[in-house]
Structure formats: structure tokens, C-alpha cells
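Quick illustration, no need to memorize.
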Amino acid sequence: MGGELVVTFVNHATMLIQTEGLNILTDPVWSKRVSPFIGLGPKRFREVGVRFEDLPPIDVVLISHNHYDHMDIPTLHRIHKKWKPTIYAGLGNAKYLRRHGLRKAKDMDWWDKEKISTDVSVVCAAGQHFSSRAFSDRNKTLWCGYVIETLHGDIYFAGDTGYGQFVPKLHERYKKFRLAFLPIGAFRPEWFMSPVHISPDQAFQMHQELCVETSIAMHFGTFHLADDHQDEPPERITHLLAVSPDPKPNFILLENGEPTTVE
């Protein structure tokens, strides 16, 4: 309770955040494929790190955008059926989610704030990405990250993003973060992916520019979504840490299902 902060890397961009008496899930994906087509599309090559049956009661779900590897309707149905948490998503997504029976879905615009408990608020943060569920709806809904504001320090979940002017603007609003979840995968070829996915080097840069005390890597090691091989993103982070001067940045790589306690 209180300032205790325990985080589990479930897989991909699915993080279980346990703090201030709350259990929060980001971009939950337990499906075997992330695609609009049954039996086609990106298939997981690594099992989910936490069995769905082993999850604690979920209070809040945060959805960064509507891509299939982040907004997984079958998983959200399972969560809704068992716990009925409020699901926050960028503008335009709540209508889609409610149409699929997820009645507690709620839209947020960039910099909207919602109180989720007496001492915790969620802020929808700007990012640089895009959205689509089909060929006809590109950028019809909003993408975002989130800041979880607590009395014991703020937590930043970047979602999917490229590097952009939102980074210094975010730093203007939040001078430091206790914890950040930063994506490191699906970045090659960089000439094509860089507008929407940061590289490991840029994630390292964001860690420093946002004055993050602890960063945890995500968006790697689950689905093959781009030209970087599955071990390349964590290998690059490991190299960047090795060549950084002391004191080393606190940038953590977790295995699927691995928990950690954040100071």
C-alpha cells in the first residue's frame, strides 16, 4: 500500500502496475495473434508471462491506441466479464469499445485528467503515432500515452510513439518521473519506422531527457512486427548501458512475467 510500486512485464506493452492499492493494466494482450483475421497476422513466439487466471482484480485498463497489438478485444472481453474495470482510451475509441460490449470504456483527449482513486489520477499524454483498425479509418481515433499521478511520484506509460516535440513539452509539465515504460522494439527500418516507433537509442535518450529515475523497456520480444530481430532491442539497450559513464542510468530489461519492485 502507499508508495509501494510493483510492476510485472506481462508481454509486449502489457504491464501490470500495482501501487496505491490499485491494479492497473496497460494495453492488455493475451491473444495468440494480433490481427483482424482469424489464423492470419502476427503470431506470438513467446507465451504470455502471466496466466490470465493468475491476475489480481483489475481496477483500471489504459489503452494507448487501437492497433491490434495494443487494443485486443478478446482480452478486453475477458477482463470486462471478470472485473468490469473502467477502460480509458484516446478520443473516438470508447464508441467502438462500447459497440463491442465494453460498456465502461471512456474517451480521453490529450491532457485530460481523471481521478481514479482518492490519491491517484490518470492523465492522457500526447505522443507521436497513428491509428487504424482497417483501411478506411486511419487516424480517425486518437493515440496517446498516460501519466499516472501519485503522491509518491508520477509514472509514465509511453504507449507506441516516435520521438517528437511532445517530449520537451512533457518535460515542461512533469520535471521528473519515478518510473517510465518506454518502447524499444519494431524500429527497423529506421527511415520508415522512426516517425511512429522510437529506437532503443531514442528510448535511452527519452529516459535522460524526461529525468526518469527508473525506466522499464517494453514493446519487444513477443510479436514480430518489423525488421529488427527479437533480440536486437534488448541487446542494444545492454550495450548503451555498458558504455554509459557511471552512475549508470537505471534502465531495466525484464523477462516476460518478471516482476520488480520500484524504489
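Helices lie at 73-83, 93-99, 166-173, 190-193, 200-209, 232-243.
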